[in-house]
Amino acid sequence: MSPATPAPEHGGAALELLVHGVGGATPQSMLDDPRTFRVTGDETAAVHRRAEDLDAEDHPERYAARPVPEAYVWSNLTSGDGARALWLLLLPFMVVNLAHWMRPPAPGRPGLVRLYGVLVRLLALSLTVLLTAAVCEVALDLTAWQCAGTAACADGRAWLGFVAADRAGWWSVPGRRLALAAVLPAALVALLWYLSRRTWSAYEAQRPPTGDEPPGPATARDDPRPALGRPGFWYGRRLVARLRAAHTAAGLLTVAAALAAPVRHDTGVLATTGLALRAALAGCAVLVLWSVCGRGRSERRLDQRVESAVFTRLPALASGLLALTAVHTAWARPGWASSGTLPGNAVFGALTLAQGGLVVALGAVALLLQRPRRDPRTALAGLGGPATAMLACALGGVMAGGVAQWVADRLDGGATPGTPDSPLAGPPVLLSWQASVLPVLLLLLLVPAVLLGARTALAARRLRSAVEGDYADESPDRVRTGQIAATRARASLTDSAPLLVGVVSGTALLLGAVAVAGAWSSDEVPGSAFSGAHPAIAALATTTQALGSWMIGFGFLLFVTWGRRAYRDASARRTIGILWDVGTFWPRAAHPFAPPCYAERAVPDLTWRMSSWTRHTGGRLVISGHSQGSVLAAAAVWQLPPATRARVALLTYGSPLERLYGRWFPAYFGPEALRGLHRAVHCWTNLHRATDPIGGPVRVPAEDGRPGVDAPVLRDPVAYGRSRAHPLPEPVLGHSDYQADPAFAERRAALLDRLPPALPRQRTDGFSDQGSSGRSSG
Q1: Residue partners of 147: CB distance under 8 A and separation at least 6
Q2: Checking phi first, is residue 592 left (phi over 0); if not, alpha (psi -120 to 50) or beta?
Q3: Among 84, 143, 202, 655, which is most buried by a count of CB atoms within 10 Å?
Q4: 625 with 661: CB under 8 angstroms?
Q5: Is Secreted a UniProt keyword of this protein (predicted)?
């Protein structure tokens, strides 16, 4: 099957720019030719062409009878070298970043939009603190404070011998053990800073091909272009740099606070120094909060200003305070010994409460934003952002509790941390309570899972008549009909995702509150807290605690092993890359340590390519996007200047533009935005199947003499049963192989027919200035 079937033989030169979807593709498979060459780009993302078409730019007159096919391959942006596997550990950061983009549309309400952005950025900051606190719990509390301070734990562990309290060595002093252990969380924060800095220079700091002259205030305020069409949307250089400095400082301050917490009952100079250090830490924390709350995204122009030195030097200031705190804590104090848990573990409870309060506040703001213009298709009635933010907090809690529980189990041998027969006091009580509610959460999720399964089975039975109607000209086959109907029913499960996300998020919020209340009221692990209750209740508490501890530790181990496998195995790395294809389309607006936004490279690439073709040849162009590629194509078309868009047609197939992006990101892909795209581009057609679990209709009707975007639903399979034309059974394709359908070539030819004829060849190079305007997105 070739994607370059002949188009109408009139209208002059034409180019078909193919953009693949999730999971990646090769240029050979996209162009249906083993001999392909890279015409522009690099190893990360490039445009490829068949060998026989290499001279199409210089001789467009030879290609009047068919479009020149080109393939834009961007899969290495998300599934490249082995280091990308480490991004799996940054999953909570990616999810909370998505919450920023899920706000409802709110024209004329900039105050609420800014407040929404501030709340999401504060939630993102809390996740950085939570991750750092979890590593501090492992390194400082469980290892340096508890295990090294207890002979029963330190014996038999040669790597702890030089810091063990019973060895009376120089490092055996509690403060020195803590200062040495603080190297681990500090190194983690430094690694996150380095990864963010490196990807920042490769993504956010790359200037997109748009003008940077700001319009007048009135023009900016009345700019009709959607956010994705504004010049500064794909240029987050300044904001990410500011957030990176703030989050790095927050992580280092968390380590410093963990070092300062156990130092008590000092007198004289040590007491004065400790008080001054605590005041300095508090002052630096205020600067971090000011930095995070003070500024959001600005899309009105390419903001190339340098950030204030007050904020860029926050990591250096926090590093200095951390070093001074380490020296102060390491100072020898007569009679100081470690026992119990490290003071300061209440931070986990405070973080949980703060995250719950921020999620509730975010939900209230989202409802206020959604109220004036409620769209029934919007996921969770506009609460998709708060629900997703809650999922990010839950993921962070599972990872934090998992690493602490797993390490505690390893250090404690065969005993259970926190029980009387264990030499270790174990992780904070709250983490044990949070682990204990995990089995309850999974049990409660069985209810919607069973209901969805039953509803899908009933839907498959109802769809039998519709399937037989679609193939009324062929003899019915009960087995074949059931297969097609079941595939359609399973594909419709995607539309139930908002309900499932809402149930998970709401249940996680409720059970999180129960865990905090139980931990603070009893100050004991669940098994001990219910030891005097009815035997059945006590047994249930003990069972859920043990099961939850195993599950949360296993979950963390699964993350680590999956990441390690992906580091070594390219196929596993590509699977992880599929997650990032969907999750990292959006710029890093809330969390600077999230995986980078590949669209900040892909969208300018596509914009440049479309502009250079139309300006150089004066020809027509159809950009053809499958799945996630259709989202990139739409974003690139929005960035084009009007003169170029007049020569561009958009062909989308298997597209999640409305089904996923329109419902979950209504401010950017909602009904108004998609109708605006329909009016902006010269012509647009969307192909979809009822068996596709990802793509669907874009629901843009005909208006102003323009036909509707959605073509009639494609039959899948193309042939119902065996025939002379199809002697073997045709597969149910679902989300794949749209180009194999005869309707694909017909619709592409119709789009090319509707484009204006080619202009006389132009040799002007460069990119026209689009101006720059827009509003802040919070």
Answers
A1: 153, 154, 157, 160, 411, 424
A2: alpha
A3: 655
A4: no
A5: no
pLDDT digits (tens, 9 = 90+) for 358-371: 999 999 999 999 87
Helices (H) and strands (E) in the chain, counts: 26, 7
Residue 651 has pLDDT above 70, yes or no: yes
Q: Give the N- to C-terminal CA distance of the chain in Å, as an integer.
A: 46
In three-state secondary structure terms, 697 is coil
* Secondary element (H or E) of residue 146: none
Highest mean pLDDT among 225-234, 235-244, 552-561: 235-244
Q: From the CA atom positions of the chain, what is the Rg in Å?
A: 29
Q: Residue 268 contacts by C-beta under 8 Å, 6 or more apart in sequence?
A: none
Q: How many residues does the chain have?
A: 778
Best CA proximity match to 606, nearest among 57, 6, 15:
15
Q: What is the mean pLDDT of residues 555-575?
A: 65
List pLDDT tens digits, range 208-229: 665 444 444 434 444 567 888 8
Nearest to 523 by CA among 262, 263, 340, 395: 340
State the pLDDT confidence band at 246, using cuts at 50, 70 and 90. very high
Banded pLDDT at 579 (limits 50, 70, 90): low
Q: What is the mean pLDDT of the chain?
A: 85
201: left (phi over 0), alpha (psi -120 to 50) or beta: alpha
Question: Would you state the structure tokens that stand for residue 427, as one six-digit string?
Answer: 């992780």
- Reduced 3-state DSSP string for 258-289: HHHCCCCCCCHHHHHHHHHHHHHHHHHHHHHH
pLDDT confidence of residue 201: 80
Q: Is 71 helix (H, G, I), strand (E, B) or coil?
A: strand
> Are 467 and 584 in contact, with CB atoms under 8 Å apart?
no
Side-chain-side CA neighbours of 48 within 13 Å: the count stands at 24
- Supply φ then ψ for residue 427, to 5 degrees: -65, 170
* Helix H or strand E encompassing 222: none
Which residue reads 């062929």 in tokens? 474
Q: Residue 473: its pLDDT value, please?
A: 85
pTM value is 0.90
10 Å CB burial of residue 286 (0-12, 13-18, 19+) is: exposed
The Cβ of residue 107 has, within 10 Å, a number of other Cβ atoms equal to: 11
Distance CA 390, CA 347 (A): 19
Let me know the angle formed at the C-alpha of 126 by 124 and 127, rounded to the nearest 5 degrees: 65
Please say whether the beta carbons of 660 and 388 come within 8 A: no
Q: Angle at the Cα of 83 (from 81 to 87), degrees rounded to 5?
A: 120
Q: Where are the alpha helices (DSSP H) in 371-428?
A: 384-411
- Give the pLDDT score at 419: 64
* Predicted local confidence at residue 120, as pLDDT: 98
Mark 167-190 as b/e (b = at least 16 C-beta within 10 Å): eeeebbbbbbbbbbbbebbbebbe
pLDDT tens digit sequence for 295-338:
777 777 776 776 777 788 999 999 999 999 999 999 988 888 88
DSSP-derived letter for residue 660 is I
Task: Kindly report the backbone phi and psi dihedral angles of residue 408, in degrees, each rounded to the nearest multiple of 5, phi listed first.
Answer: -60, -40
Give yes or no for a contact between 655 and 698, defined as CB atoms under 8 angstroms apart.
yes
- Cβ neighbours of residue 361 under 8 Å, at least 6 residues apart? 119
DSSP 8-state class, residue 720:
S
Q: How far apart are CA 544 and CA 546, in angstroms?
A: 6
The alpha carbon of residue 174 and the mean position of all alpha carbons in its chain are separated, in whole angstroms, by 40
pLDDT at 138: 93
Nearest to 100 by CA among 314, 278, 249, 297: 297
Q: Is the pLDDT of residue 750 over 60?
A: yes
Amino acid at 160: L
pLDDT for position 328 = 95
**Residue pair 78/628 in contact by the 8 Å Cβ criterion:** no
Contact 178, 138 (CB under 8 A): no
